[in-house]
Design goal:
309 residues, alpha/beta, TIM Barrel, 8-stranded parallel β-barrel, two-stranded antiparallel sheet, 11 helices, 40% helix
Length: 309
């Protein structure tokens, strides 16, 4: 096997809050605008070059794509940090629905999920050891109906979302949950010219996708480089309690990494992460032990072809 070198610093993404973990799992999961701003700024100070966001209804933590909610925290974060802003565009039945908040907020990066899957949302509650919930929506979210949910990302929907972001000149991050998703992405790129480098994120550990074991991650990495070239910017991100281990694997493989309260709130059994910054500090300690450099926001922008703010 070729020797892995770290000529490029590792770009750390912090996934500040998500759409599948809930307030009942941790009081430290940011929900309100104030919490989002404080935890995002602190995570950037700790070493996150990219901040990845979902939005939540501040009343009960329910996921939302309401531009008014995005507007309540994103401009303030932009004012207080130079980190790259990355918006999830995963909510909505149509590509237009998913891109609706991004049209208003105009992030530097927007995500495109590549491929459909049985998401297995109920497994999230099992992984976090939670069976009692504060809100009715959480009980429904993880209840019997969650066993019937298929995350639908049709070829038409993926293609339309790519075209929307190309028209808007927004850089895309392609979230791939399994090896087959890489080939779906290859299919779409045959008829579209995207700016380089391509950003591919391995989202592993979902019950309906590929696990976060090192052999799977290596297979994903080698397949990505074979399909899209060695200049592809790969991010490794495992969901659930193995997210920190997956990030460490990614750094050792020479990829960029993602951690954060979106992906996992449990530091170890019986102990919650108290903030996003705490997660960034932990992966920084791990990376530093191997003398692997970490990218600044300016270095990340230069690598990804983004303009200086």
């Amino acid at each position: 096997m070729a020797k892995i070198t770290h000529s490029k610093p590792v770009i750390i993404t912090c996934a500040v809050t998500g759409a599948t973990l809930t307030p009942s799992m941790s009081p430290h999961l940011p929900v309100t605008a104030e919490q989002m701003i404080m935890q995002s700024v602190d995570a950037a100070k700790a070493g996150a070059a990219i901040l990845h966001f979902h939005a939540r209804d501040p009343k009960d933590g329910r996921p939302t794509n309401d531009p008014a909610v995005w507007q309540s925290f994103l401009p303030q974060i932009r004012q207080q940090t130079d980190a790259v802003i990355n918006m999830s565009c995963s909510m909505g039945e149509t590509a237009e629905d998913r891109a609706s908040a991004a049209r208003v907020m105009k992030p530097e990066i927007a995500t495109v999920i590549v491929g459909s899957m049985n998401y297995g949302r109920f497994q999230k509650a099992i992984d976090q050891g939670i069976s009692e919930f504060q809100h009715d929506w959480e009980r429904e979210f993880y209840g019997p109906k969650s066993h019937h949910i298929v995350t639908q990302n049709t070829f038409a929907k993926i293609g339309r979302l790519i075209d929307i972001f190309l028209e808007m000149n927004i850089l895309m991050e392609f979230e791939c949950y399994d090896v087959g998703h890489l080939y779906i992405l290859e299919h779409h790129l045959k008829t579209r010219k995207l700016p380089r480098p391509l950003i591919v994120q391995f989202l592993t550990g979902i019950l309906g996708g590929i696990p976060s074991d090192i052999d799977h991650l290596l297979h994903m990495k080698r397949t990505t480089e074979r399909l899209f070239g060695m200049d592809t910017e790969i991010f490794t991100h495992g969901t659930g309690p193995d997210n920190m281990r997956a990030a460490a694997y990614g750094a050792l493989m020479g990829t960029n990494v993602r951690v954060g309260q979106e992906d996992n709130v449990t530091e170890r059994p019986g102990r919650l992460f108290r903030s996003n910054a705490e997660q960034i500090q932990k992966i920084r300690r791990i990376i530093d032990e191997f003398d692997i450099p970490v990218a600044t926001p300016a270095e990340a922008r230069a690598r990804l072809g983004l303009p200086t703010p």
